[in-house]
Design brief:
heterodimer, A: 125 residues, mainly alpha, Helix Hairpins, 3 helices, B: 483 residues, 20 helices, 2% strand
Protein backbone atom coordinates (compact mmCIF):
# COMPACT_ATOMS: atom_id res chain seq x y z
CA UNK A 1 0.00 0.00 0.00
CA UNK A 2 2.79 2.34 0.83
CA UNK A 3 5.07 1.04 -1.91
CA UNK A 4 5.61 4.53 -3.32
CA UNK A 5 7.26 5.58 -0.08
CA UNK A 6 10.17 3.30 -0.90
CA UNK A 7 11.42 5.58 -3.65
CA UNK A 8 14.75 7.18 -2.67
CA UNK A 9 13.54 10.71 -3.48
CA UNK A 10 10.51 10.43 -1.21
CA UNK A 11 12.57 8.96 1.62
CA UNK A 12 15.09 11.80 1.25
CA UNK A 13 12.34 14.42 1.34
CA UNK A 14 10.81 12.92 4.46
CA UNK A 15 14.21 12.67 6.15
CA UNK A 16 15.10 16.25 5.26
CA UNK A 17 11.83 17.68 6.52
CA UNK A 18 11.95 15.54 9.66
CA UNK A 19 15.55 16.32 10.51
CA UNK A 20 15.11 20.05 9.94
CA UNK A 21 12.08 19.97 12.25
CA UNK A 22 14.23 18.23 14.84
CA UNK A 23 16.98 20.81 14.36
CA UNK A 24 14.55 23.62 15.09
CA UNK A 25 13.11 21.75 18.09
CA UNK A 26 16.65 21.53 19.44
CA UNK A 27 17.35 25.19 18.66
CA UNK A 28 14.07 26.20 20.35
CA UNK A 29 15.02 24.17 23.43
CA UNK A 30 18.46 25.72 23.47
CA UNK A 31 17.03 29.23 23.43
CA UNK A 32 14.16 28.73 25.89
CA UNK A 33 15.42 26.24 28.48
CA UNK A 34 17.48 27.30 31.47
CA UNK A 35 18.40 24.01 33.11
CA UNK A 36 21.86 22.70 32.21
CA UNK A 37 20.70 19.16 31.50
CA UNK A 38 17.88 20.42 29.29
CA UNK A 39 20.36 22.55 27.37
CA UNK A 40 22.59 19.54 26.85
CA UNK A 41 19.58 17.52 25.67
CA UNK A 42 18.73 20.31 23.21
CA UNK A 43 22.27 20.27 21.87
CA UNK A 44 22.09 16.48 21.56
CA UNK A 45 18.83 16.79 19.59
CA UNK A 46 20.44 19.32 17.25
CA UNK A 47 23.46 17.10 16.71
CA UNK A 48 21.32 14.05 16.07
CA UNK A 49 19.19 15.92 13.57
CA UNK A 50 22.28 16.88 11.57
CA UNK A 51 23.54 13.29 11.62
CA UNK A 52 20.13 12.04 10.51
CA UNK A 53 19.98 14.62 7.73
CA UNK A 54 23.38 13.59 6.44
CA UNK A 55 22.92 9.82 6.59
CA UNK A 56 19.32 9.98 5.34
CA UNK A 57 20.34 12.00 2.31
CA UNK A 58 23.39 9.95 1.39
CA UNK A 59 21.75 6.55 1.89
CA UNK A 60 20.15 4.83 -1.06
CA UNK A 61 17.86 1.93 -0.21
CA UNK A 62 18.27 0.29 -3.59
CA UNK A 63 22.04 -0.02 -3.11
CA UNK A 64 23.87 -2.70 -1.13
CA UNK A 65 26.19 -2.62 1.84
CA UNK A 66 29.71 -1.40 1.01
CA UNK A 67 31.45 -4.75 1.46
CA UNK A 68 33.48 -6.09 -1.46
CA UNK A 69 32.42 -9.72 -1.87
CA UNK A 70 30.50 -12.02 -4.22
CA UNK A 71 27.28 -11.56 -2.31
CA UNK A 72 27.07 -7.79 -2.53
CA UNK A 73 28.06 -7.58 -6.16
CA UNK A 74 28.82 -4.46 -8.15
CA UNK A 75 30.88 -1.72 -6.49
CA UNK A 76 28.98 1.03 -8.31
CA UNK A 77 25.76 -0.16 -6.63
CA UNK A 78 27.08 0.21 -3.09
CA UNK A 79 26.32 2.84 -0.51
CA UNK A 80 29.09 5.31 0.22
CA UNK A 81 30.77 4.20 3.47
CA UNK A 82 32.61 7.46 4.21
CA UNK A 83 29.61 9.36 5.64
CA UNK A 84 28.89 6.49 8.00
CA UNK A 85 32.44 6.50 9.29
CA UNK A 86 32.30 10.28 9.64
CA UNK A 87 29.05 10.25 11.54
CA UNK A 88 30.24 7.48 13.85
CA UNK A 89 33.22 9.67 14.72
CA UNK A 90 30.99 12.69 15.18
CA UNK A 91 28.58 10.74 17.43
CA UNK A 92 31.43 9.63 19.66
CA UNK A 93 32.84 13.15 19.86
CA UNK A 94 29.41 14.63 20.60
CA UNK A 95 28.83 12.05 23.31
CA UNK A 96 32.19 12.83 24.90
CA UNK A 97 31.54 16.56 24.89
CA UNK A 98 28.09 16.15 26.44
CA UNK A 99 29.39 13.75 29.09
CA UNK A 100 32.07 16.27 29.96
CA UNK A 101 29.43 19.00 30.11
CA UNK A 102 27.24 16.97 32.45
CA UNK A 103 30.21 16.30 34.71
CA UNK A 104 31.00 20.04 34.80
CA UNK A 105 27.35 20.75 35.61
CA UNK A 106 27.37 18.21 38.46
CA UNK A 107 30.57 19.64 39.94
CA UNK A 108 29.18 23.15 39.59
CA UNK A 109 25.92 22.11 41.26
CA UNK A 110 27.82 20.53 44.16
CA UNK A 111 29.69 23.78 44.78
CA UNK A 112 26.95 26.33 44.26
CA UNK A 113 23.60 24.49 44.30
CA UNK A 114 22.71 26.14 41.02
CA UNK A 115 21.30 24.31 38.01
CA UNK A 116 20.16 27.21 35.85
CA UNK A 117 22.20 28.90 33.19
CA UNK A 118 20.84 32.42 33.69
CA UNK A 119 21.72 32.32 37.39
CA UNK A 120 25.27 31.41 36.42
CA UNK A 121 26.72 34.88 36.87
CA UNK A 122 29.31 34.55 39.58
CA UNK A 123 31.56 36.85 37.60
CA UNK A 124 31.14 40.53 37.00
CA UNK A 125 29.35 41.73 33.91
CA UNK B 1 57.73 12.85 7.53
CA UNK B 2 58.63 15.79 9.70
CA UNK B 3 55.29 17.57 9.53
CA UNK B 4 53.47 14.54 10.91
CA UNK B 5 55.83 14.58 13.89
CA UNK B 6 54.30 17.87 15.02
CA UNK B 7 50.99 16.11 15.51
CA UNK B 8 52.16 12.60 16.28
CA UNK B 9 54.67 13.35 19.03
CA UNK B 10 52.34 15.27 21.36
CA UNK B 11 49.60 12.66 20.82
CA UNK B 12 52.07 9.85 21.45
CA UNK B 13 53.14 11.59 24.62
CA UNK B 14 49.53 11.59 25.80
CA UNK B 15 49.25 7.84 25.37
CA UNK B 16 52.61 7.09 26.93
CA UNK B 17 52.03 8.98 30.18
CA UNK B 18 51.01 5.84 32.16
CA UNK B 19 54.45 4.41 31.37
CA UNK B 20 56.22 7.69 32.08
CA UNK B 21 54.47 7.94 35.43
CA UNK B 22 56.32 4.82 36.55
CA UNK B 23 59.59 6.77 36.36
CA UNK B 24 58.61 9.18 39.06
CA UNK B 25 56.53 12.28 39.56
CA UNK B 26 58.64 14.65 37.52
CA UNK B 27 59.19 12.46 34.48
CA UNK B 28 56.03 13.60 32.71
CA UNK B 29 56.83 17.29 33.12
CA UNK B 30 60.43 17.00 31.96
CA UNK B 31 59.77 14.64 29.07
CA UNK B 32 56.96 16.88 27.83
CA UNK B 33 59.18 19.95 27.99
CA UNK B 34 61.96 18.11 26.18
CA UNK B 35 59.59 16.95 23.48
CA UNK B 36 58.25 20.46 22.97
CA UNK B 37 61.77 21.82 22.75
CA UNK B 38 62.54 19.19 20.14
CA UNK B 39 59.48 20.24 18.13
CA UNK B 40 60.60 23.86 18.38
CA UNK B 41 64.05 22.85 17.13
CA UNK B 42 62.42 20.98 14.25
CA UNK B 43 60.27 23.99 13.34
CA UNK B 44 63.27 26.32 13.48
CA UNK B 45 65.36 24.07 11.25
CA UNK B 46 62.51 24.04 8.74
CA UNK B 47 62.29 27.83 9.01
CA UNK B 48 65.97 28.33 8.40
CA UNK B 49 66.01 26.03 5.37
CA UNK B 50 67.02 27.65 2.11
CA UNK B 51 64.10 26.48 0.01
CA UNK B 52 60.50 27.40 0.63
CA UNK B 53 59.10 24.53 2.66
CA UNK B 54 56.43 22.50 0.98
CA UNK B 55 55.55 19.10 2.23
CA UNK B 56 52.45 17.13 1.44
CA UNK B 57 51.64 13.93 3.21
CA UNK B 58 48.79 11.92 1.81
CA UNK B 59 47.35 8.74 3.18
CA UNK B 60 45.82 6.23 0.74
CA UNK B 61 43.85 7.73 -2.19
CA UNK B 62 40.26 6.72 -1.26
CA UNK B 63 40.60 8.33 2.16
CA UNK B 64 42.46 11.34 0.80
CA UNK B 65 43.61 12.43 4.23
CA UNK B 66 46.44 14.85 3.76
CA UNK B 67 48.52 17.37 5.66
CA UNK B 68 50.19 20.30 3.99
CA UNK B 69 53.18 22.11 5.44
CA UNK B 70 53.94 25.32 3.54
CA UNK B 71 55.33 28.70 4.54
CA UNK B 72 51.98 29.85 5.92
CA UNK B 73 51.33 26.83 8.11
CA UNK B 74 54.99 26.66 9.13
CA UNK B 75 54.74 30.18 10.54
CA UNK B 76 51.93 29.11 12.85
CA UNK B 77 53.58 25.79 13.73
CA UNK B 78 56.77 27.61 14.71
CA UNK B 79 54.81 30.18 16.72
CA UNK B 80 52.83 27.51 18.59
CA UNK B 81 55.83 25.33 19.40
CA UNK B 82 57.79 28.38 20.53
CA UNK B 83 55.01 29.55 22.83
CA UNK B 84 54.26 26.12 24.26
CA UNK B 85 57.95 25.58 25.01
CA UNK B 86 58.09 28.89 26.85
CA UNK B 87 54.91 27.93 28.68
CA UNK B 88 56.43 24.64 29.84
CA UNK B 89 59.68 26.31 30.88
CA UNK B 90 57.71 28.88 32.85
CA UNK B 91 55.66 26.14 34.43
CA UNK B 92 58.84 24.31 35.50
CA UNK B 93 59.71 27.19 37.79
CA UNK B 94 56.07 27.93 38.67
CA UNK B 95 55.43 24.39 39.92
CA UNK B 96 58.03 24.64 42.68
CA UNK B 97 55.57 26.71 44.67
CA UNK B 98 52.24 26.49 42.86
CA UNK B 99 52.07 23.10 41.19
CA UNK B 100 48.77 22.14 39.62
CA UNK B 101 46.92 19.20 41.07
CA UNK B 102 47.43 16.07 39.03
CA UNK B 103 50.14 17.34 36.73
CA UNK B 104 49.99 14.28 34.50
CA UNK B 105 46.48 15.16 33.42
CA UNK B 106 47.45 18.78 32.95
CA UNK B 107 50.32 17.89 30.64
CA UNK B 108 48.22 15.44 28.64
CA UNK B 109 45.71 18.25 28.03
CA UNK B 110 48.48 20.70 27.20
CA UNK B 111 49.93 18.38 24.57
CA UNK B 112 46.51 17.53 23.17
CA UNK B 113 45.95 21.26 22.76
CA UNK B 114 49.28 21.60 20.97
CA UNK B 115 48.66 18.59 18.71
CA UNK B 116 45.18 19.71 17.76
CA UNK B 117 46.17 23.34 17.15
CA UNK B 118 48.96 22.21 14.85
CA UNK B 119 46.59 19.67 13.31
CA UNK B 120 44.09 22.43 12.53
CA UNK B 121 46.79 24.41 10.78
CA UNK B 122 48.30 21.54 8.79
CA UNK B 123 45.26 19.54 7.91
CA UNK B 124 43.83 19.85 4.42
CA UNK B 125 40.83 17.65 4.91
CA UNK B 126 37.67 19.23 6.19
CA UNK B 127 36.63 16.32 8.37
CA UNK B 128 40.06 16.18 9.99
CA UNK B 129 39.66 19.87 10.64
CA UNK B 130 36.41 19.07 12.45
CA UNK B 131 38.10 16.37 14.54
CA UNK B 132 40.98 18.67 15.53
CA UNK B 133 38.47 21.47 16.14
CA UNK B 134 36.80 19.23 18.71
CA UNK B 135 40.01 17.95 20.31
CA UNK B 136 41.25 21.51 20.73
CA UNK B 137 37.83 22.41 22.14
CA UNK B 138 37.67 19.56 24.64
CA UNK B 139 41.17 20.12 25.97
CA UNK B 140 40.48 23.85 26.24
CA UNK B 141 37.21 23.26 28.15
CA UNK B 142 38.96 21.04 30.67
CA UNK B 143 41.94 23.37 31.00
CA UNK B 144 39.62 26.28 31.67
CA UNK B 145 37.69 24.36 34.38
CA UNK B 146 40.85 22.80 35.75
CA UNK B 147 40.84 24.45 39.17
CA UNK B 148 37.27 23.27 39.87
CA UNK B 149 36.31 26.46 41.67
CA UNK B 150 32.79 27.81 40.96
CA UNK B 151 34.26 30.42 38.63
CA UNK B 152 36.41 27.92 36.78
CA UNK B 153 33.50 25.52 36.31
CA UNK B 154 31.28 28.36 35.16
CA UNK B 155 33.91 29.28 32.59
CA UNK B 156 34.23 25.66 31.52
CA UNK B 157 30.46 25.27 31.15
CA UNK B 158 30.09 28.43 29.11
CA UNK B 159 33.00 27.44 26.90
CA UNK B 160 31.62 23.93 26.45
CA UNK B 161 28.06 24.95 25.61
CA UNK B 162 29.14 27.50 23.00
CA UNK B 163 31.69 25.07 21.61
CA UNK B 164 29.09 22.32 21.28
CA UNK B 165 26.74 24.65 19.42
CA UNK B 166 29.57 25.71 17.13
CA UNK B 167 30.39 22.11 16.32
CA UNK B 168 26.77 21.35 15.36
CA UNK B 169 26.89 24.12 12.76
CA UNK B 170 30.28 22.99 11.52
CA UNK B 171 29.10 19.39 11.07
CA UNK B 172 26.05 20.68 9.22
CA UNK B 173 28.29 22.65 6.87
CA UNK B 174 30.52 19.62 6.30
CA UNK B 175 27.49 17.43 5.65
CA UNK B 176 26.17 19.87 3.04
CA UNK B 177 29.60 20.09 1.41
CA UNK B 178 29.90 16.31 1.19
CA UNK B 179 26.34 15.90 -0.10
CA UNK B 180 26.96 18.41 -2.88
CA UNK B 181 30.58 17.74 -3.77
CA UNK B 182 31.27 14.22 -2.61
CA UNK B 183 34.70 14.91 -1.24
CA UNK B 184 36.26 16.07 1.98
CA UNK B 185 39.55 17.22 0.53
CA UNK B 186 39.93 21.01 0.68
CA UNK B 187 41.49 21.19 -2.79
CA UNK B 188 38.75 19.14 -4.45
CA UNK B 189 36.06 21.14 -2.67
CA UNK B 190 37.71 24.41 -3.69
CA UNK B 191 37.77 23.32 -7.34
CA UNK B 192 34.06 22.60 -7.53
CA UNK B 193 32.65 25.00 -4.95
CA UNK B 194 32.15 27.77 -7.50
CA UNK B 195 29.78 25.64 -9.56
CA UNK B 196 27.29 25.00 -6.74
CA UNK B 197 23.90 26.73 -6.79
CA UNK B 198 23.89 30.14 -5.11
CA UNK B 199 21.55 29.11 -2.27
CA UNK B 200 23.69 26.15 -1.24
CA UNK B 201 26.82 28.32 -1.31
CA UNK B 202 25.09 30.92 0.84
CA UNK B 203 23.86 28.32 3.33
CA UNK B 204 27.28 26.68 3.62
CA UNK B 205 29.04 30.00 4.11
CA UNK B 206 26.57 31.06 6.80
CA UNK B 207 26.98 27.74 8.60
CA UNK B 208 30.77 27.93 8.38
CA UNK B 209 30.70 31.52 9.60
CA UNK B 210 28.57 30.58 12.63
CA UNK B 211 30.58 27.44 13.35
CA UNK B 212 33.94 29.18 13.24
CA UNK B 213 32.55 32.52 14.44
CA UNK B 214 32.17 31.20 17.97
CA UNK B 215 35.77 30.04 17.95
CA UNK B 216 37.39 33.07 16.29
CA UNK B 217 35.60 35.25 18.85
CA UNK B 218 33.80 37.49 16.45
CA UNK B 219 30.93 39.80 17.42
CA UNK B 220 28.11 38.85 18.24
CA UNK B 221 29.27 35.31 18.97
CA UNK B 222 31.94 36.30 21.49
CA UNK B 223 29.81 36.90 24.60
CA UNK B 224 31.36 33.87 26.36
CA UNK B 225 35.01 34.79 25.88
CA UNK B 226 35.46 37.27 28.68
CA UNK B 227 33.88 35.01 31.30
CA UNK B 228 36.08 32.15 30.19
CA UNK B 229 39.16 34.33 30.55
CA UNK B 230 38.10 35.46 33.99
CA UNK B 231 37.22 32.01 35.25
CA UNK B 232 40.33 30.26 33.97
CA UNK B 233 43.72 30.72 35.56
CA UNK B 234 45.82 33.38 33.90
CA UNK B 235 48.48 30.78 33.16
CA UNK B 236 46.02 28.92 30.94
CA UNK B 237 44.79 32.17 29.39
CA UNK B 238 48.20 32.52 27.73
CA UNK B 239 47.34 29.42 25.71
CA UNK B 240 43.85 30.62 24.81
CA UNK B 241 44.95 33.99 23.51
CA UNK B 242 48.34 32.88 22.19
CA UNK B 243 47.63 29.59 20.49
CA UNK B 244 44.03 28.39 20.25
CA UNK B 245 42.47 31.51 18.72
CA UNK B 246 45.30 31.85 16.22
CA UNK B 247 44.82 28.28 15.01
CA UNK B 248 41.10 28.84 14.50
CA UNK B 249 41.71 32.16 12.75
CA UNK B 250 44.15 30.58 10.34
CA UNK B 251 41.91 27.64 9.49
CA UNK B 252 38.84 29.86 9.06
CA UNK B 253 40.55 32.18 6.62
CA UNK B 254 42.28 29.30 4.91
CA UNK B 255 38.86 27.83 4.08
CA UNK B 256 37.49 31.27 3.16
CA UNK B 257 40.31 31.89 0.66
CA UNK B 258 39.81 28.44 -0.81
CA UNK B 259 36.02 28.31 -1.05
CA UNK B 260 34.61 31.81 -0.92
CA UNK B 261 37.03 34.35 -2.30
CA UNK B 262 34.18 36.63 -3.40
CA UNK B 263 34.48 40.37 -2.91
CA UNK B 264 31.07 40.81 -1.22
CA UNK B 265 31.80 38.19 1.41
CA UNK B 266 35.20 39.69 2.12
CA UNK B 267 33.73 43.20 2.48
CA UNK B 268 31.15 41.79 4.90
CA UNK B 269 33.93 40.16 6.95
CA UNK B 270 35.96 43.39 7.00
CA UNK B 271 33.06 45.35 8.46
CA UNK B 272 32.29 42.52 10.89
CA UNK B 273 35.89 42.57 12.12
CA UNK B 274 35.93 46.36 12.51
CA UNK B 275 32.62 46.27 14.40
CA UNK B 276 33.92 43.53 16.71
CA UNK B 277 37.00 45.56 17.47
CA UNK B 278 34.97 48.67 18.27
CA UNK B 279 32.55 46.79 20.54
CA UNK B 280 35.38 45.03 22.37
CA UNK B 281 37.29 48.24 23.04
CA UNK B 282 34.19 50.12 24.20
CA UNK B 283 33.32 47.29 26.60
CA UNK B 284 36.94 47.13 27.76
CA UNK B 285 36.88 50.76 28.88
CA UNK B 286 34.90 50.28 32.06
CA UNK B 287 36.51 47.07 33.32
CA UNK B 288 38.07 47.01 36.74
CA UNK B 289 39.28 43.44 36.69
CA UNK B 290 42.63 42.90 35.03
CA UNK B 291 41.76 39.53 33.51
CA UNK B 292 38.52 40.83 32.01
CA UNK B 293 40.27 43.92 30.74
CA UNK B 294 42.94 41.93 28.96
CA UNK B 295 40.29 39.55 27.67
CA UNK B 296 38.56 42.50 25.99
CA UNK B 297 41.89 43.66 24.66
CA UNK B 298 42.40 40.15 23.23
CA UNK B 299 39.00 40.38 21.56
CA UNK B 300 40.00 43.70 20.04
CA UNK B 301 43.30 42.42 18.73
CA UNK B 302 41.76 39.22 17.37
CA UNK B 303 39.15 41.32 15.58
CA UNK B 304 41.95 43.43 14.09
CA UNK B 305 43.68 40.28 12.82
CA UNK B 306 40.30 39.14 11.49
CA UNK B 307 39.84 42.41 9.58
CA UNK B 308 43.34 42.18 8.14
CA UNK B 309 42.87 38.58 7.02
CA UNK B 310 39.47 39.44 5.54
CA UNK B 311 40.97 41.98 3.14
CA UNK B 312 42.45 39.19 1.05
CA UNK B 313 45.47 40.98 -0.28
CA UNK B 314 49.07 40.14 0.32
CA UNK B 315 50.04 43.21 2.35
CA UNK B 316 47.05 42.85 4.64
CA UNK B 317 47.67 39.15 5.26
CA UNK B 318 51.30 39.91 6.01
CA UNK B 319 50.09 42.54 8.47
CA UNK B 320 47.73 40.00 10.04
CA UNK B 321 50.62 37.60 10.56
CA UNK B 322 52.69 40.40 12.11
CA UNK B 323 49.90 41.27 14.53
CA UNK B 324 49.28 37.59 15.30
CA UNK B 325 52.92 37.23 16.27
CA UNK B 326 53.09 40.46 18.27
CA UNK B 327 49.79 39.78 20.02
CA UNK B 328 50.75 36.22 21.02
CA UNK B 329 54.06 37.35 22.47
CA UNK B 330 52.62 40.40 24.25
CA UNK B 331 49.69 38.47 25.72
CA UNK B 332 52.10 35.79 26.92
CA UNK B 333 54.03 38.45 28.83
CA UNK B 334 50.88 39.93 30.27
CA UNK B 335 49.14 36.76 31.39
CA UNK B 336 52.36 35.30 32.80
CA UNK B 337 52.89 38.57 34.68
CA UNK B 338 49.34 38.31 36.02
CA UNK B 339 50.20 34.80 37.25
CA UNK B 340 53.16 36.23 39.15
CA UNK B 341 51.07 39.10 40.51
CA UNK B 342 48.31 36.78 41.66
CA UNK B 343 50.74 34.64 43.66
CA UNK B 344 51.55 37.66 45.80
CA UNK B 345 48.42 39.78 45.77
CA UNK B 346 45.60 37.23 45.44
CA UNK B 347 43.53 39.72 43.50
CA UNK B 348 42.96 40.83 39.94
CA UNK B 349 41.57 44.27 40.62
CA UNK B 350 43.35 47.01 38.69
CA UNK B 351 44.11 48.61 42.05
CA UNK B 352 46.64 45.84 42.74
CA UNK B 353 48.87 47.37 40.09
CA UNK B 354 49.35 50.35 42.42
CA UNK B 355 50.86 48.09 45.06
CA UNK B 356 52.96 46.14 42.60
CA UNK B 357 56.52 46.44 43.74
CA UNK B 358 58.63 45.02 40.95
CA UNK B 359 60.26 47.41 38.51
CA UNK B 360 61.15 44.48 36.26
CA UNK B 361 57.60 43.19 35.95
CA UNK B 362 56.26 46.72 35.53
CA UNK B 363 58.61 47.47 32.67
CA UNK B 364 58.00 44.24 30.74
CA UNK B 365 54.24 44.67 31.16
CA UNK B 366 54.50 48.24 29.91
CA UNK B 367 56.48 47.08 26.89
CA UNK B 368 53.83 44.46 26.11
CA UNK B 369 51.07 47.06 26.41
CA UNK B 370 52.90 49.52 24.18
CA UNK B 371 53.32 46.80 21.61
CA UNK B 372 49.62 45.91 21.78
CA UNK B 373 48.82 49.58 21.29
CA UNK B 374 51.05 49.82 18.27
CA UNK B 375 53.63 52.34 19.44
CA UNK B 376 56.66 52.62 17.10
CA UNK B 377 59.75 50.56 17.99
CA UNK B 378 57.55 47.66 19.13
CA UNK B 379 56.40 44.72 17.06
CA UNK B 380 52.74 45.67 17.27
CA UNK B 381 53.41 48.91 15.41
CA UNK B 382 54.55 47.21 12.21
CA UNK B 383 51.39 45.13 11.97
CA UNK B 384 49.00 47.94 12.79
CA UNK B 385 50.71 50.33 10.41
CA UNK B 386 50.53 47.80 7.57
CA UNK B 387 46.84 47.14 8.25
CA UNK B 388 46.00 50.83 8.19
CA UNK B 389 48.09 51.31 5.06
CA UNK B 390 46.40 48.53 3.15
CA UNK B 391 42.97 49.71 4.34
CA UNK B 392 43.77 53.14 2.94
CA UNK B 393 45.06 51.66 -0.32
CA UNK B 394 41.95 49.49 -0.77
CA UNK B 395 39.71 52.49 -0.08
CA UNK B 396 38.11 51.31 3.17
CA UNK B 397 38.42 54.72 4.80
CA UNK B 398 35.44 54.19 7.10
CA UNK B 399 36.94 50.96 8.44
CA UNK B 400 40.25 52.75 8.88
CA UNK B 401 38.51 55.42 10.92
CA UNK B 402 36.77 52.81 13.10
CA UNK B 403 40.04 51.02 13.77
CA UNK B 404 41.89 54.20 14.65
CA UNK B 405 39.05 55.22 16.96
CA UNK B 406 39.04 51.77 18.62
CA UNK B 407 42.81 51.99 19.06
CA UNK B 408 42.38 55.33 20.79
CA UNK B 409 39.90 53.74 23.19
CA UNK B 410 42.42 50.98 23.77
CA UNK B 411 45.05 53.61 24.50
CA UNK B 412 42.78 55.13 27.14
CA UNK B 413 42.67 52.03 29.27
CA UNK B 414 46.28 51.07 28.72
CA UNK B 415 47.42 54.48 29.86
CA UNK B 416 45.09 54.20 32.83
CA UNK B 417 46.82 50.93 33.71
CA UNK B 418 50.25 52.43 33.15
CA UNK B 419 49.22 55.29 35.43
CA UNK B 420 48.28 52.81 38.13
CA UNK B 421 51.53 50.91 37.69
CA UNK B 422 53.76 53.95 38.02
CA UNK B 423 51.78 55.87 40.60
CA UNK B 424 53.44 56.69 43.89
CA UNK B 425 51.59 54.97 46.64
CA UNK B 426 51.88 52.27 49.20
CA UNK B 427 53.94 49.52 47.73
CA UNK B 428 53.88 46.01 49.04
CA UNK B 429 56.99 43.95 49.61
CA UNK B 430 59.09 43.38 46.52
CA UNK B 431 57.70 40.66 44.28
CA UNK B 432 60.07 37.74 43.91
CA UNK B 433 60.58 36.50 40.36
CA UNK B 434 62.77 33.51 39.73
CA UNK B 435 65.79 33.70 37.44
CA UNK B 436 64.28 31.43 34.75
CA UNK B 437 61.13 33.47 34.70
CA UNK B 438 63.09 36.71 34.38
CA UNK B 439 64.97 35.16 31.49
CA UNK B 440 61.73 34.17 29.76
CA UNK B 441 60.19 37.62 30.23
CA UNK B 442 63.35 39.23 28.88
CA UNK B 443 63.38 36.94 25.87
CA UNK B 444 59.75 37.76 25.03
CA UNK B 445 60.23 41.50 25.55
CA UNK B 446 63.44 41.41 23.51
CA UNK B 447 61.56 39.73 20.65
CA UNK B 448 58.93 42.49 20.72
CA UNK B 449 61.60 45.18 20.47
CA UNK B 450 63.74 43.29 17.97
CA UNK B 451 60.87 42.77 15.53
CA UNK B 452 59.72 46.34 16.14
CA UNK B 453 63.12 47.83 15.33
CA UNK B 454 64.05 45.39 12.58
CA UNK B 455 60.87 44.08 10.98
CA UNK B 456 62.86 43.12 7.88
CA UNK B 457 64.15 40.10 9.82
CA UNK B 458 60.87 38.28 9.31
CA UNK B 459 59.01 40.42 6.79
CA UNK B 460 60.31 38.44 3.79
CA UNK B 461 59.17 35.18 5.30
CA UNK B 462 55.79 36.61 6.30
CA UNK B 463 55.31 38.09 2.85
CA UNK B 464 56.05 34.67 1.37
CA UNK B 465 53.56 33.10 3.83
CA UNK B 466 50.90 35.62 2.86
CA UNK B 467 51.56 34.88 -0.78
CA UNK B 468 51.20 31.14 -0.18
CA UNK B 469 47.96 31.65 1.74
CA UNK B 470 46.49 33.85 -0.95
CA UNK B 471 47.60 31.85 -3.99
CA UNK B 472 45.15 29.05 -3.54
CA UNK B 473 45.68 27.76 -7.07
CA UNK B 474 49.19 26.62 -6.16
CA UNK B 475 47.83 24.97 -3.02
CA UNK B 476 45.12 23.20 -5.00
CA UNK B 477 47.40 21.98 -7.76
CA UNK B 478 49.98 20.75 -5.22
CA UNK B 479 47.35 18.89 -3.27
CA UNK B 480 45.49 17.39 -6.20
CA UNK B 481 48.80 16.40 -7.74
CA UNK B 482 49.86 14.86 -4.48
CA UNK B 483 46.87 12.58 -4.21
Amino acid sequence: MFEYLNQPEIIKTIVTIGSMTLLFIGLFGLLTQKHFIKIFISIAIMETSVFLFFIGNIFNNTFTAPIISERFGDVSKMNDPIPHAMILTAIVIGMAVLALGVSFAIEYFKLTGNTEIDKMNGMKH
Amino acid sequence: MSSLLFIALPLLFGFSTPILNKFGKNAVVYVSTLMQTFLLYLALTLLSGNTAPIEIISIAPPLGISFVLNSASLFFVALFTFLITLFSLYYLSHRKTHAYKNETKFFILLNMLLASSIGLVLSSDIFNIYVFFEIAGISAYILSAYKKTPHALEAGLKYLITGAIASVFLVFAIALIYLNIGSLNLAVIAQTFETLPYNIKLLISILLLIGFGFKVEIFPLNFWVVDVYEGSTSLVNTLFSGIVVKAYLFVFFHTVYLFLPSAEFSTFLIYLGALSMLVAEIAGLRQTNLKRLFAYSSLGQVALIFTAFAMQNQDAIQAALFIAFAHSVAKFIIFLALTNIQKEHKSFSIETLKELNSPFLRSVMLMAMLSLLGIPLFAGFVGKFLVLKSLAVSGFLDVLFIIVFASLLEAVYYFKLAGFMFSKGEKKEPLKIGFTQKLLYSLLAFLLVLIGVAPFLISDFLSESANVMLNTSVYISNLVGGI
